[in-house]
Design brief:
The chain has 254 residues and is mainly beta. The protein has 4 helices and 12 strands. Strands 1-2-3-4-10-11-12 form a 7-stranded mixed β-barrel. A hairpin with an 8-residue loop joins strand 10 and strand 11.
């Protein structure tokens, strides 16, 4: 069977806008539940993407911080805001993927790149920038590890009780880097009760932005192991479908 024809403008292959910035190490430590520990530089990674899901384009914003489990390094996903409801609840129920509804604008026109993310009436993130020169990728495949958590608190809300105790989910994605394009621009994060970047992951240095094109060659999702249910309990209460801490968890914006 021949490859499908891909005309210009095809949703498949839209590069991801990746924004990285340093934050306080203690800020990351406060957000990591027992079983995960900070590893490497305290850099927040935000990816804004457009990809086909359920036969239509999904616009999303994913936020990760560096974390390791049993010595294996990866990124702990705090939240994935998306603009289509069909993929939110089934993703959380099946794999613990922390998705929540979010209105997202993301486009490139010529050398200009724009992105903005709005949740519960607040545009908590916006970015505008200009493209630099393309940097070609190589033939080497890389595997990136991402951590999700699946659990269910007990019906009726009994203190410390679960219907499904917490377990860590390991997501391994293998991909070949096609190219990157540096973007010279400005990231703005605004105070928000629902997306408390400015309070819990403040910017503490230079923001680096780039468009990243990859060719995904494989993906596995599996249980990495159980987490201590008693130690995890303060982290079980979260904001919406994200992993931002709720009222019982680590400090959050009022």
């Amino acid at each position: 069977m021949s490859e499908p024809i891909r005309l210009p403008g095809d949703v498949l292959g839209v590069p991801k806008l990746v924004l990285r910035y340093p934050t306080d190490p203690a800020s990351i430590d406060a957000l990591l539940p027992p079983g995960l520990e900070r590893r490497g530089e305290p850099v927040v990674s935000i990816g804004i993407y457009c990809a086909p899901v359920h036969g239509e384009p999904e616009l999303g914003v994913s936020t990760k911080v560096p974390a390791a489990h049993d010595g294996e390094e990866g990124g702990y996903t705090l939240g994935i805001g998306i603009d289509q409801e069909s993929a939110i609840f089934i993703s959380r129920e099946t794999n613990g993927q922390p998705k929540f509804p979010c209105a997202i604008r993301y486009h490139r026109l010529g050398d200009h790149v724009h992105a903005s993310c709005t949740h519960q009436g607040t545009t908590f993130l916006s970015f505008d920038g200009r493209l630099g020169a393309v940097v070609e990728g190589g033939d080497v495949e890389r595997t990136e590890t991402e951590w999700w958590i699946k659990y269910s608190r007990a019906v009726g809300g009994a203190e410390g009780a679960y219907d499904l105790p917490p377990r860590l989910v390991r997501v391994a994605t293998t991909a070949q880097l096609v190219c990157t394009v540096p973007v010279d621009g400005e990231l703005t994060l605004r105070p928000s009760r629902w997306d408390p970047y400015t309070e819990l992951l403040p910017i503490r240095g230079e923001v680096v932005a780039e468009l990243v094109s990859t060719r995904v060659t494989g993906r596995t999702i599996e249980v990495a192991g159980p987490l201590d249910p008693e130690a995890f309990w303060p982290f079980a209460d979260t904001i919406g479908g994200s992993r931002w801490p709720g009222l019982r968890g680590a400090p959050r914006v009022d």
